[in-house]
Design goal:
The chain is an all-alpha fold and 323 residues long. The protein has 15 helices and 2 strands.
């Protein structure tokens, strides 16, 4: 299994039913909201997180109604954070389409994000899914902390690798680890197994984020580098490694560009070239593969079957993907 379509075959029926249930969960009596919900559903991404929920659940037994609610909650929370992120980042695009704030302005986008959050909370509370709600609420708390920590450290251009890992553990990995934990809980009600899957998801989530960092620098397979993270002064792993290994004069030059010339294409490309030259890309790939391998090692605690193999393939897909 080396692509998401093959992995999806393992949970084809669950994903098909999920589409229907998720559409139902998004419905609103307010026509403006309903129109926006339909727009969001049509432009949903690769559904990596619901796939982690269903596979983590099926690792222990047949999926339950609680599994579908967990997948919906994960997707509702994820979508809410994306809608709010686009407002914070003043982003006009999301996955090649107009963002909600671009089409309906910031006030409506913030309210839509709030609506999605409340839909998720109510979906769990109405069905007494308290433990699943607790697992996911902790993720939302961590994601908010991660975002704020990133804003704080970006202002100071903090170059500590440990801080970087703390940021991505909170900002990205927490939701993926919670998706795995919620999936496991939905079919086991077992605290220990849930914790095992949470740890697995965290490692996979960190690898996932490092892969996203690498897209900013491009490659033969990805195409042109985007430099978006550099423009936004985001300190990604390849850049942190580079700034900590180059000479002090080169470091000063790069920091000057990051602070003052980060919107100039010529200078952004200069930073990208320096990162490649310093071995920042190779270092990030190495760290990403370490986390991928740690995630897969945690999976090996469970008996081998097609679902476990599917989860392993999904982890590999997140680090091998071309987009």
């Amino acid at each position: 299994m080396n692509n998401s379509n093959e992995i999806q075959q393992l949970i084809r029926e669950e994903l098909r039913d999920f589409e229907i249930k998720f559409g139902e969960a998004m419905k609103s009596k307010v026509s403006l909201l309903d129109r926006i919900m339909k727009y969001i559903i049509k432009r949903k991404g690769k559904q990596i997180r619901p796939m982690f929920v269903f596979l983590s659940a099926k690792l222990f037994g047949p999926v339950t109604d609680a599994t579908f609610r967990a997948a919906s909650l994960v997707e509702l929370l994820h979508t809410a954070t994306l809608v709010h992120d686009d407002v914070v980042d003043e982003s006009m695009e999301r996955r090649g389409f107009f963002s909600i704030n671009a089409l309906w302005k910031n006030k409506i986008a913030v309210l839509v994000g709030d609506y999605l959050l409340s839909k998720g909370l109510l979906l769990s509370l109405k069905n007494d899914d308290y433990n699943i709600l607790k697992i996911l609420s902790e993720a939302v708390e961590q994601m908010s902390e991660g975002e704020l920590l990133q804003i704080e450290k970006t202002r100071k251009l903090n170059l500590d690798e440990a801080v970087y890992f703390e940021i991505i553990k909170n900002k990205t990995a927490s939701l993926l680890s919670s998706a795995c934990a919620a999936g496991a809980w939905s079919t086991t009600n077992d605290t220990f197994k849930t914790e095992q899957m949470k740890n697995f998801g965290e490692k996979a989530g960190i690898a996932f984020q490092i892969k996203d960092d690498l897209f900013d620098y491009g490659s033969e397979t990805i195409g042109k580098p985007t430099g978006n993270d550099i423009k936004e002064k985001k300190l990604t792993l390849p850049l942190i490694y580079t700034l900590n290994t180059v000479s002090s004069s080169k470091k000063k030059e790069l920091i000057y560009i990051l602070k003052n010339e980060n919107r100039q294409k010529k200078y952004v490309n200069q930073v990208i070239d320096e990162v490649k030259k310093a071995g920042g890309i190779d270092y990030a790939v190495k760290r990403m593969n370490e986390y991928r391998d740690e995630a897969i090692a945690l999976l090996k605690q469970f008996p081998e079957n097609e679902i476990r193999n599917g989860l392993e393939s999904l982890v590999r897909f997140t680090t091998d993907r071309k987009y």
